[in-house]
Design goal:
With about 230 residues, the protein is α/β, with parallel strands linked by helices. It contains 9 helices and 8 strands. The longest helix is centred in the middle third of the chain and has 26 residues. The termini are far apart.
Length: about 230
């Protein structure tokens, strides 16, 4: 049986290389797809310890696991919050006694005027309903009740999550894993934008990992400082 770890931030596939470059723990839809392609229908265990991240990437990974041809078993071993809790709904889910699940409303960065913000509020409400529908399909709890829980940003221990049928059982471990995640500690969009622009304009579009190992350290430091400003 193959295992795959969903640790750190859930990110879009196009941005994963930036997180990898900064050596920030992350997982993307492509990384999961590559694992499932390699598993080729073999039963898999997905270990989750993540504060969430990009909503659509999380939904994509949930759907990917739901449609996988082999048996999928989810283990929450630390934290399954936000988008990570969506992924946890994709199969039989077991949670260690010391772990937690957190569900809340979708959020975004918005710099529009009052008209744009009013529209954004409506758009976010649609996103919330979509997330609630995933929880509803797993637990049978009504969407209205789930939306109320999301409004309050609800944290659940293993026993409560089991009572709500958001998980299927509690892992029989004696020692709970360490709680080390922050909630969705994603890189600021300004840093991502600089990195994308840098990749387009520097060295014929080569990404940092494409450079040969012989690159001068001064050049690498200059590039890092440019992106971190």
């Amino acid at each position: 049986m193959k295992e795959f770890d969903i640790n750190g931030v859930i990110v879009a596939t196009d941005d994963a290389w930036i997180y990898d470059w900064y050596e920030l723990e992350n997982v993307s839809p492509k990384k999961l797809k590559d694992f499932l392609d390699d598993a080729a229908g073999e039963d898999v265990i997905i270990n989750i310890n993540s504060g969430g991240g990009d909503l659509y990437s999380g939904v994509n990974m949930h759907d990917m696991l739901k449609s996988y041809s082999g048996n999928v078993e989810i283990h929450i071993v630390g934290l399954a919050a936000s988008a990570a809790s969506v992924i946890a709904m994709s199969g039989k889910c077991l949670m260690s006694p010391g772990s937690q699940m957190m569900i809340h409303n979708v959020s975004c960065c918005d710099t529009s005027n009052k008209n744009g913000k009013a529209k954004m509020a409506k758009d976010l409400a649609v996103c919330d309903k979509g997330v609630a529908a995933v929880y509803e399909a797993k637990s049978g709890i009504s969407q209205d009740e789930l939306l109320k829980l999301m409004d309050k940003e609800t944290w659940l221990d293993a026993k409560t999550a089991l009572e709500m049928k958001l998980i299927d059982g509690i892992l029989g471990v004696e020692t709970a894993p360490a709680f080390t995640n922050s909630i969705t500690a994603m890189l600021p969009e300004t840093v991502l934008a600089k990195a994308r622009q840098f990749a387009k304009t520097s060295d014929n579009g080569a990404k940092p990992e494409d450079h040969a190992s012989g690159v001068r350290i001064d050049d690498l430091l200059t590039k890092l400082n440019y992106l971190r400003r």
